[in-house]
Amino acid sequence: MSESILPLSAGLSAFIESGLSMLIGTRGPDLTPESLRGVGIAVTKDGRGLTVFVPLRGGTRTLANLGDNGRIAVTLSRPTTHETIQIKGVVARIEDATEDDRASLDRYLEAFSRILTPCGMPATVTRRLVNWPAVAVTVAIEDVFVQTPGPRAGTRLAGPLRGVHR
Amino acid sequence: MTPRLESLDRCFQGIMPGAIATCDASGVPNISYVSQVHYIDERHVALSCQFFNKTRQNLDENPLACVELYDPVTWECYRLRLRFDHSETSGPVFECMSARIEAIASHTGMSGVFRLLSADVCEVLEVEWVADFILPPRDDESGTPLFADDAPINELRGLQLVSERINQAKDLDTLLSNALAALDEVFAFRHSMILVPEDGRHRLVTLASHGYPSQAVGAEVPVGERSFLAMVFLPTHALAMASKRSARSIGESVSPQPRRRLECRAEAWR
Questions:
Q1: Of A23, A50, A39, whose CA–CA distance to B66 is shortest?
Q2: Which of A57, A152, A166 sits opposite B54 (nearest CB)?
Q3: Quick one: which of B180, B23, B241 has its CA closest to A73?
Q4: CA torsion angle for B157, B162, B163, B165 (degrees, to 10)?
Q5: What is the ipTM of this complex?
């Protein structure tokens, strides 16, 4: 546990919530990995956790895995600069997303859509991504790694670049 | 619905980066982008390994992986469940994947730093089309916005049309200009050039160009030893680069100077 990264700084929290490309990794009881695109994310008020929004459609195995063992990895990337982080943690709570959450997921999709436009992906396509119905998964953060492509991808973001996870 | 792997050829062009989930022996999952997923045959793909990263380390501990690929035109999503089999550091699959990465590296002066370590060959256990990942286009939207509005036909019919135009040419100039114009009309390739080697293999000369404001015919381009052009020109197989802009930004995130900038920003996250 990299306690020194917690609570997350305002800068990192803002980055996480800025409408990035988001991947979710989980695994089953037999260690079979599962990949899924997330549809929204928010840093919890205390800065020590995340609320990760998992789409119900296409997310069946992910949700089963989270219910089974709670292990989760979330990678967030800004497509224009490839700045990327990966957050690892354990699920604390799983509940249905609310109508209020739905509005925030639509804002997330809109921001994601804007980020992708300069990459040549038209908003007419990205706005059609399905983000509802969704489940809100609260995650206790255990580790944060810088994953920006390059030889130093995998550096733990806690303390002065001390650990390398690769 | 279980699609055939070979029908996903657009997903293998590297336009949209795929995702790969792995898991270490103690059960900690990892999720990352994968720059190239290379189609080998109906039962096998190869993953590009440029750095000995956590994904690669996990595959040694637990050979199972889940890869998501996206169609760059429709953005439909496909999930492949894989079992890592072996790594290749030579041979046709490695050479083909390496040439594409070398082209990206040469474009940003990163040859030798940003390079393919191995082509990690995986058996494909299952292919899944992810239903309801994206809504279908509305009736008033073009279903294929990245193509020309009337983008038609299938590739075979398109090639037939281009061939017919080439066959009508009575001289070389018309043949070249007809070919490029037909590629524009049929496949929406708005900008194109034909370059041929001259002076041994040291420079390329432009024989025809299409879609550029000034006629570039006759323009000469030196082929540096490790230049982007050399990477495209010297291999004896076809090399398609999805996006030079995207290649450049990936290369820049790896190269020392802009990386320092990104690392400074990462410092601010602490």
A1: A23
A2: A166
A3: B23
A4: 130
A5: 0.93
Note the helical H segments in A72-145: 99-116, 123-126
Tell which B residues from 141 to 170 touch A, by Cβ distance under 8 Å: 141, 145-146
B269 touches chain A (CB under 8 A): yes
Instruction: Give the gap in angstroms from C-alpha B230 to the nearest C-alpha of chain A.
Output: 24
* Cα–Cα separations (whole angstroms), residue B107 to A22, A94, A107, B224, B249: 28, 46, 36, 12, 10
Who contacts A165 (Cβ-Cβ below 8 Å, separation ≥6)?
A: A143, A145, A154, A155, A156, B54
pLDDT, tens digit, for every residue of A49-90? 999 999 999 999 999 999 999 999 999 999 888 899 999 999
A153: nearest CB among B27, B53, B113 = B53
Buried b (16+ CB within 10 A) or exposed e, B253-262: bbbeeebeeb
Cα dihedral: B198, B203, B206, B210 (round 10): 140
* pLDDT tens digits for range B202-259: 788 888 999 988 777 888 877 766 566 666 666 556 667 666 666 666 566 556 555 5
